[in-house]
Amino acid sequence: MIKPYLHIKKSPGKGRGVYTKDAIPAGTRIETSPVLVLSYDDTEKADKTFLHNYLFLWGKRETKSCVALGFCSIYNHAYDPNCEYEMDFTEETMSIITRRAIKKARSFSSITTATWTMIPRSGSM
Predict the structure, then answer these.
(1) Of 29, 74, 76, 110, which residue has the fewest beta carbons closer than 10 angstroms?
(2) For residue 113, what is the enclosing H or E element?
């Protein structure tokens, strides 16, 4: 599930990012996408490649990693992000949820996330 008002575009100095033209209320789940879970050994291998920039630590002990599908790996990061990640270890999904309202802009509003606001929801690993 990816909300239809989201899209990817290039931004000077930041590369690709996820943007919206619509206002989005706080607490809105704007995306839930599957992830590909990598074992500890595969994580060590992938960590030495270009994929390092797109891996997320996975599991309650963070001994694995995942590659998020959908737009999850394309959101830009910020110290004060307007969204956060929510990981469901049982369903092997990652969701993006707004932390605060994102106002409608004349152009497109950037959607930012921070990896350190992960919320393990259920399951074990």
Answers:
(1) 29
(2) strand 109-113
> What span, in angstroms and rounded, lies between the C-alpha atoms of 90 and 112?
25
CB-based contacts of 13, cutoff 8 Å, min separation 6: none
13-58: per-residue pLDDT in tens?
778 888 888 899 999 999 999 999 999 999 999 999 999 888 999 9
CA distance 4 to 41: 37
Structure-block tokens of residue 72: 């999850």
- Nearest CA-CA partner of 115 in 71, 88, 78, 66: 78
Question: CA angle, corner 20, sides to 16 and 24, nearest 5?
Answer: 135
Per-residue tokens: 46 = 């992938």
Q: Which residues on adjacent β-strands are paired with residue 94?
A: 33, 87
